Amino acid sequence: MASLRQKISASKFVLVLSGAGISAESGIPTFRGKEGLWKNHRAEDLASPAAFQRDPKLVWAWYRWRRALIASKKTNAAHEGLVRLEARMPRYQLITQNVDGFHGLAGSRKMIELHGNIWRMRCTSCGEKIENHDPDLPELPRCLKCEALLRPDIVWFGEGINANDLEQSIQSCRACDLMLVIGTSAVVQPAASFASIAKEAGAYLVEINPVPSLSGLSDVTLVGKAAEIVPKIVD
Ligand code: APR
Ligand code: ZN
After folding, report:
1. Domains and CATH numbers, the chain
2. Prediction pTM value
3. b/e per residue, 183-199, with b = 16+ CB within 10 A?
4. Does the CB atom of residue 116 touch ligand 1 within 6 A?
5. Catalytic-residue membership of 115
């Protein structure tokens, strides 16, 4: 711990990649954990353009359920610790795969929400984006401008990441000198490749996860829960 803290203090650019595991202790189930099922559907079978085309009511029901769950929970010590880390670093970037908005709620600023945000919706026809926290969304929310169907502004399986977000992420991987990878199973691309891009470019790689996913790649693996470990290394 002491040498890792030193390493962080000596860094000029710390990059953080977070996944569902960082919100686990807030009470949000991870995707590939035991509780990652909703009414027997896997996330992969709901978060896709094909699923939305087949049954938009089902997909929206899942998102309404997730929005209500997230709205009932709070940020945890890991989200909050990263805000203090950001304040101290000369250069800092956070990339999250999470759509719960918790990093922003905690106060993170330099942040890329790679997979979107569950509190934003997008028109399937005119592309209009709307921020919306309404707990009682209709079964099929519609665009106020053109009345077409709205969808969650989330990157689904089979869809591409916003080009600017992707480019900025990869640049950060190449430029950082230390990368913290927190709570991701590292199976969903492109984020799954970020750690190796950073490592190849010479970054010192640290993973925080009770079930590590980057063994062999990381320089240090801290086996445990994000909300316990993050405050220990940043404070
Ligand atoms: N602290 C840290 N990590 C944890 C904790 C915890 N308390 N609890 C679980 N984890 C770890 C798990 O061991 C696992 O490696 O978090 C990871 C969660 O993995 P996934 O459920 O696969 O989530 P993630 O990697 O974020 O998934 C990527 O897949 O479904 C899509 O778009 C969705 O963004 C998501 C993407
Ligand atoms: Zn519209």
Report:
1. 2-26+74-115+161-234 (3.40.50.1220), 29-72+117-154 (3.30.1600.10)
2. 0.97
3. bbbbebeebbebbebbb
4. no
5. yes
